[in-house]
Amino acid sequence: MIPLQDLGWQGQPWQWQIAHAVRDANELTRLLHLEASPISTDFPLLVPWPYLARIEPGDRNDPLLRQILPIAEEGMSAPGFGTDPVADLDSIRQNGVLQKYDGRLLVITSGACAINCRYCFRRHFPYESFQPSQRDWDAIVDTTRSDPSIREVILSGGDPLVLSDRQLGNIAGRLEAIETVDTLRIHTRLPIVIPSRICESLLAWVRKTSLRVVVVVHVNHPNEIDNDVVVALEQLAAAGVTLLNQSVLLAGVNDDAAVLTALGRRLFDARTLPYYLHQLDPVAGAAHFQVGDKRALELMHEVRSELPGYLVPRLVREVASATSKVPVG
Ligand SMILES: *Cc1c(COP(=O)(O)O)cnc(C)c1O
Ligand code: SF4
After folding, report:
1. Who wins on pLDDT, 196 or 85?
2. pLDDT of residue 36
3. Phi/psi of residue 298, nearest 5 degrees
4. Shortest CA distance to 288 belongs to which of 251, 238, 327?
5. Atom of ligand 1 at shortest distance to CA of 324?
6. What is the pLDDT of residues 12-39, one digit of tens each?
7. Which alpha helices (H) appear in 4-69, and where do they start and end?
8. Residue 125: pLDDT over 90
9. Ligand 1 pocket, mutate which of 94, 98, 276, 325 (most atoms under 8 A from CB)
10. Residue to mutate, 64, 218, 247, ligand 2, most ligand atoms under 8 Å from C-beta
11. Cα 212 to Cα 199: distance, rounded to the nearest angstrom
12. Over pLDDT 70: what percentage of the chain?
């Protein structure tokens, strides 16, 4: 068997990694020496090589595999689990824009992602091809300019870093021309799943913009942070970016105090501070990932006793119509 590390993907640019990601469950199980048990799903498997290579071959319970492999439990229906769990569709202010909280405007910059995470609300929005048009962006800039309470624009998705650096540099340029906006935030999993996304052309516009740049990455388990990820995040830090992480509390992935503690320490190795630990949004197809609030609070108690306060994430849940993320407990 050829080791996963030697299959020709290493050193390829990020665009190649997206184009050649693994999309076939049979291929994945073959590569990882697992018994095939493909299920039919309308949210297909999607995993790029740099992430796949961090999965332990032969281990069906691998915490990274569990995040990406479709399994039969997704077919279970569970009370309270639906297709629009946080009522995003009610918060759409204009094409591509969600505003739930004061001072922050969230733009669905792209519907696409480089990976399909099984627990994601996105599984029910087939907006893979969604992307604000030039016209939409004109309107977003107008809204932002005419509302001085907006100090921060959040590029979210999907994953905004699937856009080219020319497009992202343009967006940053248009926003920095608005005097009342001082911060550009980017919610992205790409530096984790494809660390080569943090390339020179990205760093160039990040260094150049006069906006403060905050990058919120998404890591759930310390095994997701290999040395390439550390290097990528260090480059962002060196370019002046404030780095934070959000995780989702997931049964069978990180519902374990030792794992959460190791995650906090590993993030700090990569200049990143834990920000939020989210209680799962009740998304149809993800009920098998749910961890009860009582257990979640016990875990937080243990984590808090192990780690310095600055490595302890805030346990929160998203509640439709609340004015911020809501602390649990
Ligand atoms: C989560 C979220 C934000 C960001 O909230 P913070 O607490 O500032 O991280 C902003 N807008 C929307 C619509 C969100 O869902
Ligand atoms: S939006 Fe984030 S959590 Fe959802 S599939 Fe994309 S990368 Fe995964």
Report:
1. 196
2. 86
3. -60, -45
4. 251
5. 7
6. 999 999 999 999 999 999 999 999 887 8
7. 14-19, 25-31, 49-52, 65-68
8. no
9. 325
10. 218
11. 19
12. 97
- Please tell me the predicted confidence (pLDDT) of residue 151: 98
| Sheet arrangement for strand 92-94 | 92-94, 97-98, 104-110, 152-157, 183-187, 212-218, 242-248, 273-278, 314-317, 326-327
Res 96: pLDDT: 86
Q: Which two tokens stand for residue 164?
A: 């080219």
The tokens describing 137, both together, are: 């962006």
Ligand 1, closest atom to CA 154? 10
Given a cut of 80, whether residue 159 has pLDDT beyond it is yes
Using DSSP, state whether 277 is helix, strand or coil.
strand
Ligand 2 atom nearest the C-alpha of 121 is 4
The per-residue pLDDT for range 279-313, each reduced to its tens digit, is: 999 999 999 999 999 999 999 999 999 999 999 99
Q: How far is the CA of 187 from the centre of ligand 1 (A)?
A: 10
Q: Token digits for 294?
A: 């009582």
How far is the centre of ligand 2, averaged over its atoms, from the C-alpha of 146 (Å)? 31
The pLDDT score that the predictor gives to residue 123 is 87
CA-based end-to-end distance of the chain:
49
What is the CA(186)–ligand 1 centre distance, in A? 11
pLDDT > 70? residue 140: yes
Spacing, Cα 8 to ligand 2 middle (Å): 26
Which of 104, 212, 276 has the most ligand 1 atoms within 8 A of CB, as the residue to mutate? Answer: 104
Helix segments in 12-164, DSSP class H: 14-19, 25-31, 49-52, 65-68, 134-146
The vertex-28 CA angle with 23 and 33, nearest 5°, equals 175
Residue with tokens 């309107």: 139
pTM over 0.85: yes
